[in-house]
Design goal:
There is one protein chain. The chain is an alpha/beta fold and 734 residues long. It contains 34 helices and 17 strands. The chain folds into five domains: 206 residues, Rossmann fold (3-Layer(aba) Sandwich); 143 residues, P-loop containing nucleotide triphosphate hydrolases (Rossmann fold, 3-Layer(aba) Sandwich); 95 residues, Winged helix-like DNA-binding domain superfamily/Winged helix DNA-binding domain (Arc Repressor Mutant, subunit A); 83 residues, HRDC domain (DNA polymerase, domain 1, Orthogonal Bundle), CATH 1.10.150.80; 107 residues, ATP-dependent DNA helicase RecQ (Arc Repressor Mutant, subunit A), CATH 1.10.10.1390. It has a seven-stranded parallel beta sheet, sandwiched between helices. Strands 8-13-12-9-11-10 form a six-stranded parallel beta sheet, with helices on both faces. A two-stranded antiparallel sheet has the order 14-17.
Length: 734
C-alpha cells in the first residue's frame, strides 16, 4: 500500500513539476499508470481531452526515449515547442522529419543516443526508412505512441497507407515494445481496424465521451455564403476563428474577402511555402491575426484553447473530419460555435473526386459521405447524431438547445406503422441492403439494382408512396439513431435489426419522431457576391430621399442621374446604411472613384437619417469581389492601359467577348476611369459617337434597349451602344 501511495505522489509531483497542473483530466491518470506498467493501451479521447499528456508525462518519467509517430510536421513542431516551453531543455524533445537538414539530423541522433531526449517525434514516412530503423535499434525505447491512429484505417477520415506499416517496423526495431495508440475520432469500425492492424487486441481501451457540451452546432443552406461569413465574423469581432474550405483557391478568395472587409485573416494550405505556413500558425497563436482560412491541413495538434468559432465554408468530407475540425473550437470550455454551410453542389464535387478511385475505395468514400449528408439534412438533434456516429447513445433533451435543430420548431409524425413496415422489410430482404435500397422499394423506384433482385415484384414495392420520401428518410435515420437498426460492422452500410428492433416488431408502441425539413435551394458560388442580399428589407423612405439627392446633383453637374449612382447601388445603401466613405466603397457599383467623387453628400444624408430615425445598422457591409475577381479586374485595367484589343484580353482570361464587356462595365460603374478610345475609334466614327453621347446625356435611364429604339437598330448594334455607354460613364461620371 505504501508503494502505491509513493507512486501516486510521484505521478502528481511530476505532473506539477513538468506541466504545472494540480489534477489530471478524465482517464489521464489511469492511462499513464498503465503505460508506466509497460501495457499496450488504446486511447480514444476527443479533441481537447488531453491526449498528448497521456504519452508526454510517462515518457518524461521513463528510462529511455519514447517514439511518437505523428502525421504532420506542424503538429510535431508545435508539441516540441510546447514541451520546451514547459521547462524542458532543447534536447528533451526532438522531431525527425523531412524538414531537417543533415546537420540537424546528426544533432538529434546524438541527443537520442546519449539519452538526453525523452520524446522523439517521427513521421511515419521517416520511421520506415532503413537508416532510421537501424538507428532506433541502438536506442533504449520506453514505448511507441501512435498519434492520430485513425490514419491506419481506410474507414478513417485521414487514411495514410504508411500507417499500416507501423506494426511491422516496430517489430523490426525490437521485441516487446509497448504501444499506445491515440485518436480523437474513432467509430466502432475504425477502432476495430486500429486494434487489428497494430496487433493490440488485448490492449486496455480507454474511451472518453465525445460530448463537448460547450459547442453549439448549426448547419445552414449555402446562400450568399461569403456575405454570411463576413457578417458572422464581424459579429464576433476580435475573437479567434478558423474557416475551412475544400480548395486552395477558395481559401485564398475567402481570406481576401475578409481582409477587404477589415478583418485580420490569413490563408493556410499545402501550396504555401513551409516557412509561410509556420509564420501563419505562429501569428494565429500570438493573436496577430484573428482568423485562419484553411484547408484541412491546418489545426491538427494546434493547442489554441480560445478558438471561438469554426466555420465550414464547404461541406466536410466525413463526420470524423467534421468532429475533429469543429473540436478545435472552445477547448478551454468557453464559447465554441460550429457553423457549417451545406449545398448539393459540394456533395457533387466530392463525388467527382472519388470517380477515378478504385471500386473498394469509392464504395467506402460513398458510405462516409452519406453520413455527412444524413447529418446535414436531418432535423434531429445534431449532438445526438454526432455521438451516435461514434458509438455513443445520447438523449436529445440533454443537448440544452446547443444546436440549431433543438432550437427550431419541429414537425412530428407517428412512428408505429411506418417503423413496423420498414423493419419487416429489412428482415424480409435478409438484412443485406442499405437504407437507400429499402426506401427505393417502399417508394416504388424501379432502378437497375431493384430490378436485378426482382424486388419490384414484392407486394411492398411502392407501398410507401403516400407517406413520401421525406418521411422514409427521417424514419430510417432515426431508426438507426434510436437503435432499432444498426449498420453491419464488416459490410458497412448494410442494415440489420437490433434486439430492440426485433422486440418492437413483437410489441409495437406509439411514439413520435421528428420529420426532416428539406434544406431549401442554395446559390451557385459564382454569383454569390455580385448582387445585394435580397433578404434585407428595403428602406423605401430613404430610397426616395437618395433618388432626390441624386437628381439634384445630376442637375448641378448637367449629367443624367444614372451616371451618379445606379439604382441597385442606391437600393443597397437602403439596406446597409453606409455612413463613412470607407463603408460607401463597399457598396456594389460604387468603388473608390465614385465614393470620392459623389459619396460625401450621400453618406451625410444617410448618417443624419440613421440618427433621426434611431436605426440599428447591420454590422456588416456588402463584400468586395473575391480574390480571383479582383485579380481579373486589375489585369483588365492594365491590359486596357497597354491598348490591348478587347478580344485578346477576353481570350487570355478564358472569357467570352460578352463577359469582358460586362467586366469592363462593372469596373467603370464602380468609378474607375478607362480610356477605350483606342478600341472604339476603330469601330465607330466620330459623328455616330457624338449622336450616342447626345442621346445618353438626355436619357432618364441607361437602357441599351431604349437606346436601340430611339437611335435605330438598323444604324447601331447592341455591342456598339454598350461600348459607347461604357465610354460615356467613364468620361462623364468618373
Amino acid at each position: 500500500m505504501e508503494i502505491m501511495t509513493e507512486a501516486k505522489k510521484s505521478l502528481f509531483d511530476n505532473l506539477q513539476s513538468f506541466f504545472g497542473f494540480n489534477n489530471f483530466k478524465g482517464d489521464q491518470e489511469i492511462i499513464i499508470e498503465n503505460i508506466l506498467a509497460d501495457k499496450d493501451t488504446f486511447v480514444i479521447m476527443p479533441t481537447g481531452g488531453g491526449k498528448s499528456m497521456c504519452y508526454q508525462l510517462p515518457a518524461l518519467m521513463s528510462e529511455g526515449t519514447a517514439i511518437v509517430i505523428s502525421p504532420l510536421i506542424a503538429l510535431m513542431k508545435n508539441q516540441v515547442d510546447q514541451l520546451r516551453a514547459f521547462g524542458g531543455s532543447d534536447s528533451t524533445a526532438h522531431f525527425l522529419n523531412s524538414s531537417l537538414n543533415k546537420t540537424e539530423i546528426a544533432r538529434v541522433k546524438e541527443d537520442v543516443i546519449t539519452g538526453k531526449t525523452k520524446l522523439l517525434y517521427v513521421a511515419p514516412e521517416s520511421l520506415t526508412k532503413q537508416e532510421n530503423v537501424d538507428f532506433l535499434q541502438l536506442v533504449k525505447l520506453s514505448f511507441v505512441a501512435v498519434d492520430e491512429a485513425h490514419c491506419i484505417s481506410e474507414w478513417g477520415h485521414d487514411f495514410r497507407p504508411e500507417y499500416r506499416k507501423i506494426r511491422q517496423v516496430i517489430s523490426n526495431i525490437g521485441d516487446n515494445i509497448p504501444i499506445i495508440a491515440l485518436t480523437a475520432t474513432a467509430t466502432p469500425k475504425v477502432q476495430q481496424d486500429i486494434q487489428k492492424n497494430l496487433q493490440m487486441n488485448n490492449a486496455l481501451l480507454y474511451k472518453s465521451s465525445f460530448n463537448r457540451t460547450n459547442l453549439y452546432y448549426e448547419v445552414r443552406a449555402k446562400r450568399n455564403v461569403l456575405k454570411e461569413i463576413v457578417r458572422f465574423v464581424k459579429q464576433h469581432q476580435g475573437k479567434s476563428g478558423i474557416i475551412y474550405c475544400l480548395s486552395r483557391k477558395k481559401v485564398e478568395e475567402v481570406a481576401e474577402a475578409l481582409n477587404l472587409n477589415g478583418i485580420k485573416a490569413l490563408p493556410y494550405h499545402a501550396g504555401l511555402d513551409p516557412k509561410v505556413r509556420a509564420d501563419t500558425q505562429d501569428k494565429f497563436l500570438m493573436e496577430d491575426v484573428d482568423v485562419i482560412v484553411a484547408t484541412i491541413a491546418f489545426g491538427m495538434g494546434i493547442d489554441k484553447p480560445d478558438v471561438r468559432y469554426v466555420i465550414h465554408h464547404d461541406v466536410p468530407k466525413s463526420m470524423e473530419g467534421y468532429y475533429q475540425e469543429t473540436g478545435r473550437a472552445g477547448r478551454d470550455g468557453g464559447e465554441g460555435i460550429c457553423l457549417s454551410f451545406y449545398s448539393e453542389k459540394d456533395i457533387d464535387k466530392l463525388q467527382k473526386f472519388m470517380k477515378d478511385k478504385p471500386v473498394a475505395e469509392r464504395e467506402i468514400g460513398t458510405q462516409i459521405l452519406k453520413e455527412v449528408i444524413d447529418y446535414a439534412e436531418s432535423a434531429v438533434c445534431r449532438r445526438k447524431q454526432i455521438l451516435h456516429y461514434f458509438g455513443e447513445n445520447f438523449d436529445a433533451k440533454d443537448c440544452h438547445n446547443m444546436c440549431d435543430n433543438c432550437r427550431a420548431q419541429k414537425e412530428f409524425f407517428n412512428v408505429e406503422e411506418p417503423l413496423r413496415k420498414a423493419l419487416n422489410l429489412v428482415l424480409k430482404l435478409g438484412e443485406k441492403f442499405d437504407d437507400h435500397h429499402i426506401i427505393s422499394v417502399l417508394m416504388g423506384v424501379d432502378n437497375p439494382q431493384i430490378h436485378n433482385y426482382e424486388h419490384h415484384l414484392l407486394p411492398e414495392f411502392g407501398s410507401g408512396v403516400e407517406e413520401g420520401e421525406n418521411l422514409w428518410k427521417s424514419l430510417m435515420r432515426q431508426a438507426l439513431l434510436n437503435n432499432f437498426l444498426a449498420k453491419d460492422i464488416d459490410y458497412y452500410g448494410l442494415l440489420r435489426l437490433t434486439d430492440l428492433g426485433k422486440d418492437y416488431l413483437q410489441n409495437p408502441y406509439e411514439q413520435k419522431w421528428v420529420l426532416n425539413r428539406p434544406m431549401g435551394p442554395t446559390d451557385d458560388d459564382a454569383s454569390e457576391d455580385d448582387t445585394p442580399q435580397g433578404s434585407a428589407v428595403l428602406d423605401t423612405q430613404l430610397l426616395q430621399m437618395l433618388k432626390d439627392l441624386r437628381k439634384k446633383i445630376a442637375k448641378q453637374k448637367n449629367l443624367p442621374p444614372f451616371v451618379i449612382f445606379q439604382d441597385p447601388s442606391l437600393e443597397e445603401m437602403c439596406t446597409h446604411y453606409p455612413i463613412t466613405l470607407d463603408e460607401m466603397k463597399q457598396i456594389s457599383g460604387v468603388g473608390t472613384g465614385k465614393a470620392m467623387k459623389f459619396g460625401t453628400a450621400f453618406t451625410e444624408l444617410i448618417k443624419k437619417y440613421v440618427e433621426e430615425n434611431d436605426i440599428d445598422r447591420p454590422v456588416d457591409l456588402v463584400i468586395k469581389s473575391a480574390a480571383n475577381k479582383s485579380a481579373i479586374k486589375v489585369s483588365i485595367i492594365q491590359n486596357i492601359d497597354r491598348h490591348i484589343a478587347l478580344e485578346d484580353i477576353a481570350s487570355s482570361k478564358g472569357l467570352s467577348y460578352e463577359d469582358i464587356l460586362r467586366e469592363i462595365e462593372s469596373i467603370v460603374n464602380s468609378g474607375t476611369k478607362l480610356n477605350l478610345s483606342y478600341y472604339i475609334d476603330d469601330l465607330i466614327d466620330e459623328d455616330r459617337q457624338e449622336e450616342v453621347f447626345g442621346y445618353f446625356r438626355k436619357a432618364e435611364a441607361d437602357s441599351i434597349e431604349d437606346a436601340l429604339k430611339e437611335l435605330g437598330s438598323d444604324d447601331y448594334t447592341h455591342e456598339e451602344l454598350q461600348l459607347m455607354r461604357i465610354k460615356f460613364m467613364s468620361e462623364l461620371g468618373n
